[in-house]
Write a structure and sequence with these properties.
The chain is an alpha/beta fold and about 260 residues long. It contains ten helices and eleven strands. The strands form two sheets. Strands 2-1-3-4-5-11 form a six-stranded parallel β-sheet, sandwiched between helices. A five-stranded mixed β-sheet has the order 7-8-6-9-10. Bound molecules: nicotinamide-adenine-dinucleotide (NAD).
Length: about 260
């Protein structure tokens, strides 16, 4: 299976290169960066510390999609939109890991999934996808007298908040309770906030250092607290999940799939 990587010089891009180069059943066919990137023209394998392969980092999205069976995207929301167009134009499956998409950007992903297989996950780690399932179970058993609070911590370079994973956990909890996350979420608390409303789902965001990704949910009632926590200590888990998704989507019908579909959860 021929795999292309857009944003191949980024933190996740480099991790994907190093995993694909040692993974059986997938072949690295190429990678792109934005046209101003200093890495355009470099050997792709060297970005991940491997010997030269002769595959050169390009900036021509069309050229990459035209030769790939699947393209993996961990970039920026604006770039992801243009990558959905490349996927549709060339009938190439797309794995989307980019987070922080607004409504219009997400609509572009959904539109592309009418024509090609798109696997999208806010978090490609197996542990977090299991945590999503556990969250749904807990939230459906523990009713509104259990206040749900979600907190996450990431490295200082992360640009969106709360993380896509924290929001996905909130969505899973809200869906299990039959409510709309937007109407129950409390994302900012500052000053005289008044008391907590029952049924709301609170979010707290921490940023600092090189933290790869910590997520916790607390179900807090009078007399007891249930806490569910996941800590990622290497980006490798996301890269492996994305590659597993890329393999899974071969010959899949057009549609929008999640990592939970890939894992059969
Ligand atoms: P990063 O900034 O290190 O890498 C992004 C790369 O995309 C950069 O190299 C940038 O130059 C490149 N890029 C930007 N525009 C481009 C374009 N038009 N064409 C090609 N390349 C382009 O960021 P990162 O830490 O690798 O994270 C990237 C995204 O992935 C973020 O949204 C992050 O939240 C998300 N992420 C998701 C998961 C997951 O499991 N879903 C895990 C980690 C990170």
């Amino acid at each position: 299976m021929k795999v292309g990587i857009v944003g191949c010089a980024g933190r996740m891009g480099r991790m994907l290169i190093s995993e694909i180069l040692v993974n059986e059943g997938v072949t690295l066919i190429g990678g792109t960066e934005h046209s101003e990137s200093a890495f355009v023209g470099h050997d792709i394998a060297k970005l991940a510390g491997f010997d030269e392969t002769g595959i050169i980092v390009g900036s021509d999205t069309d050229a990459l999609f035209s030769v790939s069976d699947v393209v993996i995207d961990f970039t920026l929301p604006q770039a992801t939109i243009s990558h959905t167009q490349g996927a549709v134009k060339y009938g190439t499956a797309l794995v989307v890991g980019t987070t922080g998409l607004n409504k219009e950007e997400q609509a572009a992903v959904v539109k592309a999934s009418k024509s090609v297989a798109v696997i999208q996950a806010a978090n490609f780690s197996i542990g977090v996808n299991l945590l999503l399932t556990l969250t749904s179970q807990a939230a459906s058993v523990l009713e509104n007298d259990y206040d749900i609070e979600i907190y996450e911590m990431h490295h200082r370079h992360k640009v969106d908040a709360p993380s896509g994973t924290a929001l996905a956990l909130g969505e899973a909890a809200a869906k299990a309770r039959g409510v709309d996350l937007v109407s129950v979420s409390e994302r900012i608390r500052d000053g005289n906030t008044g008391t907590r409303s029952p049924g709301n789902i609170g979010f707290a965001t921490l940023r600092g250092g090189d933290v790869v990704g910590d997520h916790s949910l607390i179900f807090a009632a009078d007399g007891e607290r249930l806490e569910l926590t996941h800590k990622a200590s290497s980006r490798r888990v996301f890269a492996r999940g994305a590659i597993r998704s890329a393999k899974w989507c071969e010959h899949k019908a057009p549609g929008l799939y999640s990592m939970r579909d890939v894992l059969g959860l």
